Amino acid sequence: MTLRDTVRDFAPPALVRALRAAFGRGVRYEGEYATWAEAQRRSEGYAGHDIAQRVLEAELKVKQGSAADARDGVAFGEMQFELPVLAALARAAATGSGTLRVLDIGGAFGRLYRQCKAFLPGIRLSWLVLEQPAYVTLGRQHFQNAELGFADDLGELTREPADALLFCSVLQYFPDPYALIERGLAAHARHVVVDRTPCSALEQDVACVQRVPPDIYPASYPCWIFSRRRLRAALTPGYAMLAAFSDASGVWRSGGTAFELCGFVLERDAAPRR
């Protein structure tokens, strides 16, 4: 058992939150709002912050070899493997027929592609990141290659069936995430992977404001905390839930709403596991 596991299992919640604030780069969630519009009014949004450029600078350090990994504009000395996502991709590759085709919604500059290349060597990849236009322009300029591409058109979802559709830390930032889920599932990907998505035990979704500390990039923006039950129900038409998990950061709070950063792995037309 690691020290982090010990703290998570036995420390008082207030101490866990204090440790997270000290060592978790100080990301905070605030408020409990009934609508996205209300949370949006209480936040600054992305205006005035060149977030794409900040993320690019960190990713270029990885490309140039001065860092091993980068996430949210922060460079790391070691690869921060997203192991549940990689396990799902390994399954998709094992049950596929050759090239692993991945649609990565909100995948920035291909961080998960890079992790897949490092953790699952030898797999042939066709990886498309669907992002905002600013990321697409910079991604094509600095990172695109024969396996990794970038697009800002959700029509790419249905251009060719994918082996895996990734929603990694992205659904919570869409005003209408269920419309995105419905459109994604209509693409009939063999696997759907959700990761690092706020979920609570409530029966309804809650909008909040996520505040990012200045050492990452100074911003605040609206964010959904999903009802775990409601989100699972939206993901399962035509799909079986293979796995559900939460990350190691434990319980977070926004106002009186407790939540975890959750993930799900689903497979199309597979028999549900009990």
Quick gist of this model?
The chain is 32% helix and 30% strand. It is built from 9 helices and 13 strands. Strands 1, 4, 5, 6, 7, 8, 9, 10, 11, 12 and 13 form an 11-stranded mixed beta sheet that branches. A two-stranded antiparallel sheet has the order 2-3.
Write a concise keyword list for the protein shown above.
274 residues; alpha/beta; Rossmann fold; 9 helices
Helix content: 25-40%
How many structurally independent domains? Answer: 1
CATH-assigned fold name: Rossmann fold
CATH architecture: 3-Layer(aba) Sandwich
Please give the radius of gyration in angstroms: 18 Å
**Overall shape:** globular
Strand segment tally: 13
- Kindly name the structural category: alpha/beta
Order of helices and strands: HHEHHEEHEHEHEEHEEEHEEE
CATH homologous superfamily caption: Vaccinia Virus protein VP39
Give an overview in words.
Strands 1, 4, 5, 6, 7, 8, 9, 10, 11, 12 and 13 form an 11-stranded mixed beta sheet that branches. The longest helix has 14 residues, at 51-64. This protein has a single domain, classed as Vaccinia Virus protein VP39 (Rossmann fold), CATH 3.40.50.150. The protein is an alpha/beta fold and 274 residues long. The chain has helices at residues 3-10, 13-23, 36-41, 51-64, 83-94, 111-119, 133-142, 177-185, 228-235; strands spanning 28-33, 69-71, 74-76, 100-105, 125-130, 148-151, 164-168, 191-200, 206-212, 219-227, 239-246, 252-254, 257-268.
